[in-house]
Amino acid sequence: MTDSNAQALVVVAHGSHLNPDSSAPANNHADTIRETGVFDEVRTGFWKEEPSLREVLRTVEADEVYVVPLFISEGYFTEQVIPRELRLEEWDVDQWDSDGLSADSATLAAGDVEKTVHYCGPVGTHESMTDVLIRRAESVTGDPDVGPEFGFAVVGHGTERNENSAKAIEYHADRIRERGRFDEVQALYMDEEPEVDDVTDYFESEDIVVVPLFVSDGFHTQEDIPEDMGLTDDYQLGYDVPAGVDGHRIWYAGAVGTEALTADVVLERSAEGGADVGDAVERVRERTAPKPASD
Hints:
By secondary structure, the protein is α/β, with parallel strands linked by helices. Helices cover 29% and strands 20% of the residues. It has helices at 24-36, 53-56, 76-85, 129-141, 163-179, 219-228, 262-272, 280-288, and strands at 7-13, 41-46, 64-69, 105-110, 115-120, 150-156, 184-189, 207-212, 243-245, 248-252.
C-alpha cells in the first residue's frame, strides 16, 4: 500500500554503454538531493543504462512522481523519447507552451503504473543554470570572486545539431554578460562560427574561463574541445589548468553538469512542478559552495 502523501523524484539522463562517467552526474545529484530528505524516494533512470527509462517508474512506490530531465536543451529526448519511454498518457509537447527555452512542467498519468507524473523541463534551460556556470568558473580557478579581468566562454555543439541547444548557450551567455561580473562573455560552438577552436580570437582578456554546457564529461568535453583549443595535441597526455595558448591562459572547466550545484537546479525544476522541497534549495546551495582556501 502506498502513502498518498509521499512524493518521489526521478532524475532522468542519457547514460552511455561506452562511457562509464556518463551516468555519474545524475547519480551524484540524486545522492545530494536524497540526503536532504525532502523526497520519500529519489531514483535515476537512463536511456542507455540501467535502470532504464521504461522501467524506472516501476521502482517507485509513491503515487506522486516528479521527473526532471538532466538534459541541456529541449528537443528530441525531452519531447519524444522520455515521455514515450515513461508511457506518459496524453503527452503533447504543446503542454509546455515553450519557445525552446521556457518548458516548465506538465502533469500527466502514467497509466500502466497508476501514478501521477509531473514532467518538468530540462535543467539546462533553467535560469539557475547560469549560477552553475559561474560556480564552475569559481571551482576551476579556486577563486570565489573570479570575474574582473577574466573572459568567460560558454561552449555548445552548434545550431546545425540542435537549434534549441544554441538557444540555451546564447541565453546563459547573455545572462552572465548582463551581470557584468566578467570583462568579456562569448558563446562559442564546436560545429559552427564562432568556433571554440579559435577561442583566443574572441577575447582580449589574458585569462579565459571555458565552460562547456554539457551534462557529463565524455568524448566532446574530454577529447575534442581540449585538442581543438590547443590545450594539448593528445588528450591522453593531459593538459595544464590553466594552459597557455596564444598569449592567453585558458582555464578549462569541463562539463557544467558535473558541478555539484546542478542538484539545486533539479530541485528548483521539481518545485516549479509542485513538489514540496522546503528549504532544500538553500541547503544544497550552502552544501555545494566552494570551501574557503586554508591559510
